[in-house]
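Thread: Newbie trying to understand structure tokens

Hi all, I'm a second-year student working on a class project, and my supervisor (Dr. K.) asked me to get a predicted structure for one chain before our next meeting. I've only ever worked with sequences, so writing a 3D structure as a token string is new to me. If someone could post the tokens and maybe explain what I'm looking at, I'd be very grateful. Here's the chain:
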Amino acid sequence: MGHIERRVWSGKASYRARYRDPTGRERSKSFSRKVDAERWLAEVEHTKTRGMWTDPRLGRVRFADWLAAWWSTTTNLRPDHASS
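---
Reply by user tm_fold:
Sure, no problem. This is what the structure looks like when written as tokens:
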């Protein structure tokens, strides 16, 4: 089960939602509103219970890798002088 902690930095409050993934590693995400942290944590716990949890790092793509994939799909890129 996850938990939420209130943190204050330079007079501003933020809320960090923390949970343990199925492998036991602690994960966290920060929010400016407590209600958002509660909602996100409830969703994460629900997906874990249903066995649908996925590692958030799997969705990350380095910009260089994305650029290489995108660049390979482009053809005949040149300035359009007709519109000037």
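A couple of things are worth pointing out once you decode it. Strands lie at 3-9, 12-20, 26-31. The two ends are 60 Å apart (CA to CA). Feel free to ask follow-ups in this thread.
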